[in-house]
Amino acid sequence: MHVHAFRPHSTTRLAGRGTEVDHGPVQYTSASFLVGPLIAFGVVGIFVLLLRWTYRRGGSVVARPGRSGRADDYGALVAIASPATYAEGEIVRRTLEDAGVRANLASTLDGPLVLVFPEDADRARAILARA
């Protein structure tokens, strides 16, 4: 005697013929029509919450663009060069960085400034005098 595991099947008797067609296991219950829309609304709800968190005012995870400050707004850093353009300032900053001097380029209200730490100021001026 051969025993089969119980698996409910949906069958249809063909009209005019004595054969049945097996449609496979029954997959739906009386509440199955709710599952798809509930999942869709849940996913949309998660996206709404995620986007509200991302784009709320004052709490963005994206950094704000830098603002220009006064020349004395940079704490302990000392201005050693005042190039005419930001591009020239970047060349000066890289020259100092290549020589091993920590340098920053700041966009101030008075134009770009190349800033270094006070202990590096004399060395930076000497490097720029040679360049």
Record the SSE blueprint.
Layout: E1 9-13, E2 20-25, H1 32-54, E3 78-81, H2 86-98, E4 103-108, E5 111-116, H3 121-130
Antiparallel strand pairs: 1-2, 3-5, 4-5
Q: Could you say what the CATH architecture of the domain at 78-130 is?
A: 2-Layer Sandwich
- How many extended strands? 5
What is the CATH class of the domain at 78-130? Alpha Beta
CATH level-3 fold name of the domain at 78-130 = Alpha-Beta Plaits
Distance between the termini: 98 Å
Order the strands across the largest sheet as they lie in space.
Answer: 3-5-4
Strand content: 15-25%
Helical proportion? 25-40%
Taking the sheet with the most strands, its summary is: 3 strands, antiparallel
Low-confidence stretches: none
Instruction: Give me the number of helical elements.
Output: 3
Tell me, briefly, the overall form. rod-shaped
Q: Report Rg.
A: 36 Å
Order of helices and strands: EEHEHEEH
* Mean pLDDT over the full residue set: 79
Describe this structure in words.
This protein has 131 residues and is an alpha+beta fold. It has a domain at 78-130: Alpha-Beta Plaits (2-Layer Sandwich), CATH 3.30.70. Helix content is 35%, strand content 21%. A 3-stranded antiparallel β-sheet has the order 3-5-4. The chain is rod-shaped and about 105 Å long. The termini are far apart.
